[in-house]
Amino acid sequence: MPEGPSLYILREEAARFEGQTIVRASGNARAIDIPALEGMPVLALRSWGKHFLIQTPLYTIRIHFLLFGSYRIDERKEKPPPRLALEFDDGGELNFYACQIKYVDLDEYDWAADVMSEAWDPKAARKKLRAQPDLAACDALLDQAIFSGVGNIIKNEVLFRIRLHPLSTIGALPAPKLRALVEQARTYSFDFLEWKKQYVLKKHWLAHKQSICPRCHIPFQKGLLGRTRRRSFWCENCQKLYT
Questions:
Q1: What is the pLDDT of residue 1?
Q2: Domain count for the chain
Q3: pLDDT at 68
Q4: Chain segment 46-56, per-residue pLDDT in tens
Q5: Which residues of 25-45 are buried (b: 16+ CB within 10 A; e: fewer)?
Q6: Which of 108, 128, 143 is the last residue of a domain?
Q7: Element holding 188 (H helix, E strand)
Q8: How far apart are the C-alpha atoms of 68 and 209, rounded to whole Å?
Q9: Residue 86 and residue 124 share a domain
Q10: What is the pLDDT of residues 43-90, one digit of tens each?
Q11: Which domain holds residue 130?
């Protein structure tokens, strides 16, 4: 599943289509009126967490890439067919595959929760966390209402970076550890962004999908933890459990 930094890259790569007119629209998405897009200008292209947003004068379209979604700019895959294909007046095109597409209201979005946004508000994140003292740290980082854009890679790497066991409960964390959790959710997301642009992201993974802790040189523990049941990788020696 693409994480927030990947959507940030898509927004940058597609930025030239802002202000252009959609001259042809096709695809097999059923939740939107695809032919109605033809002739519409694109007012803005935005991202919120794992959502890509195409804003037109009449409505905003949300692209959610789910587990296997992808996109192509100025090219198409042979298969599967695109869920949505947009062609623009400069001859360029934007194609989306294996994703969920629907209309949304921009007022529904809490931009202060997006870890990649200029509107990100760490104080608001800490307040939301304190309201859920029994929440496990591994679930907290994947809660899109708190950390929009954080996915499983960022979760595992942040917890390793701040030496926190994934099953630590939020209410048990010392104040400095809670601040570190919030700060590193954003900091690591921008590290992720730079490494992905340089095509070296996996080389920087210290915990995610790794076998040996680089600090303690002992095997990592692995498991489907928390209510989200997402894969976690952690060191029993250097990642402290707070409960």
A1: 64
A2: 2
A3: 84
A4: 999 989 999 99
A5: bbbebeebebeebeebebeeb
A6: 108
A7: helix 175-197
A8: 18
A9: no
A10: 999 999 989 999 999 999 999 988 788 999 999 998 889 999 999 999
A11: 112-234
Residues 6 or more apart from 180 whose CB is under 8 A from it?
162, 164
DSSP state of 212: B
CA angle 178, 116, 135 (to 5 degrees): 35
Per-residue CA distances from 128 to 92, 123, 146, 171, 237 (Å): 42, 9, 7, 12, 29
Name the amino acid, one letter, at 125: A
Which tokens go with 52? 């890509």
Question: How far is residue 37 from each of residues 47, 58, 60, measured CA to CA in Å?
Answer: 20, 9, 11
What pLDDT is stored for residue 57 in this prediction? 95
Whole-number Å distance between alpha carbons of 153 and 67: 13
- Cβ(8)–Cβ(116) below 8 Å: yes
Please check whether residues 104 and 117 belong to one and the same domain: no
Q: Is 87 helix (H, G, I), strand (E, B) or coil?
A: strand
140 and 71 both lie in a single domain: no
Over the chain, what is the mean pLDDT? 96
For residue 226, the SS3 value is coil
Question: Which residue is it, tokens 């939740």?
Answer: 31
- List 69's β-bridge partners, or say none: none
- Locate 181 and state its tokens: 């959790």
pLDDT at 59 (0 to 100):
93
Which residues of the chain carry a pLDDT beneath 50? Answer: none
**Structure token digits, residue 103:** 């209309």
* CA–CA separation, 202 and 153 (whole Å): 10
Helix or strand holding residue 94 (H, E): strand 93-97
